[in-house]
Protein: TRM5 methyltransferase
Organism: Alca torda
Amino acid sequence: LWRFGYSARLLKTNHFRTAVSNTSFPAVWMLLVQYSGTIPARFVVVKKNSFFTMPETVPETDKANLELYSPHPGVRGMTLLNRAAFKRTVVVPVLKVKKEIVNTLLKSLKHTVLQRPGLKRVVEDTEDEDSRLVILDPHKIPEFSLGEAEQEVLKQLNVCPEVSKYNLELTYENFKSEEILRAVLPEGQEVTSGFSRVGHIAHLNLRDHQLPYRYLIGQVIIDKNPGITCVVNKTSIIDSTYRNFQMEVLAGESNLVTKVKENNIAYELDFSKVYWNPRLSTEHSRIVELLKPGDVFFDVFAGIGPFAIPAAKKKCRVFANDLNPESYSWLLHNCKLNKVDNKIKAFNMDGRDFLLGPVREELSKELPLLKEEQKTSFHIVMNLPALAIEFLDIFRHLLVGEPCSTAGLPTVHCYGFSKHDDPAKEIQERAEASLGTSLAGRCSTYLVRNVAPNKEMLCISFQIPADVLYKRPCPDEAKPASKRLCTSKDSSEEKLLS
C-alpha cells in the first residue's frame, strides 16, 4: 500500500487496520476509498491460489543444507526417473536417551533436534531396547560437540552429554522436489519456473533447457504433490480464436477434464479445450465485490463463468457470452452445477456481435426507464487481454437518443497487456484512442498481475461517456425524409434515411 502513496498515518490507523484484518483482500481497495476518500490509480492484487513455485536460486540459509540433503551425485543428467538412484547415507549426531524421557528432551532441545520433514527424529537403539537415539541437527552441532546451554539441559535431565555418530539413510522419499531437480539438472541451471494447479492437473511452462528432463520433472511433481495425477506442459502460446493452447501430458493420467474450486464456487472444465487461469481468482473476486444485488452484468468473453456465476449468485441479472463452443457448453454446465441457470442468459457469439446485439438491446430497453432514485448499475466486463481494447470502438454511438442520467451510464472493465515502461498510462491511451475521447480523471487502472518479464496485465475501469455512447438525432430532421442524411461517427458511409 505504501508503494501507491498512502500515508503512514492512514495505514497505521487502528480502525483501518482492524477493517483490513477482517476483510477479504480483494475488498481492501474499497476500504482505501472509505478511509482516504480516493481511489488508487493502480493497485496490486496478490493471492497465492493454486500457483506453486520452486526456487531457482539457493537462499543463503539453505546453502548449508545442500551437502547434507543432496541426493547421490550420480543422478546428475538423469532424464528418466530412477528413484533408487537417489539413495544416500549421511552421518548425523545422536544422543542416547532413556525412552521414558524422550518427549521431555525433545521439548527442551527443540531448536537443536533435527526438524527435517519426513525424517524421524527418534530411532530405535539396536543395542539397548530401553533407550532411544535422538537425532540432532548436524548444522547446530558442529564437530559433534554440544554447547554449554545444551549440556546444562542434559545435566538437569540426567542424560549423558556424549554425542555419537549415526548413519542416516536418505531415499528419494526424503528429498524435496527442488532438491531432486537441482541434483538432476545441469549445475547452475534454473530448476523450474513453477506450475499452476487446476484440480488434479499441474500445468507447467518449461523453458528450453528443461525440456530434455520434462518427463522426469512431471513425475517428480506427481510424487511430491498429493492430489496431482496429471502434469502437462504448454507447447504453444494462447493465440487461437478460442483462447486454448496445445499441451503435452508429461506424467500421470491423460484425463484433462477436471473440477476446480474458486472463491467457494465449483467449476468443471476440459483444460485442453477451454481457458482457465487460477491466478485470476483474486481479480474475479475484486470485480464481483463491486456489484450489488439487482445490477445488470454483461460478460463479453465469459469463458466457463468465473465472473458470471458469482455475479448471478449475488442476485445480479447476468448476460454471459463466449465464442468458443466448448467454453459455452461448459458455461451452461457450470450454471446448472451452481443452480444459477435461470439467472444467466448465455450466448455463443463473437464479442462484437454480442455487444451490438444483446448488450445494445438490453441497454436501449433499460436505460430510458432508469430513474434518478434507482440504484441499478450496469457493468460490462471484457476479459480478453490480447484484444479487448480494440473492441472499445463499438461503444461509439452504440445507442441512439438523449443520454440517460450520468449515474446510469454503464461501467466498463476492460483488460489488456502492456510492455510499456508506464503500463497504466499506455493502457489508458489505447483505450482513449479506441473510444475517441479522453478518459483523464474518469478512469481507474489496476495492475492485475505480471504475466512475463516486462509484460503486465491490467484492468482499466470507466463509465462510458455520454457523448461517446449516445448518438443524437440528426439535426436536419426538418428536411424531407427522402433527402435527410446522417453520418455516423464510427462509419465513413453516409446512410440515406427514408
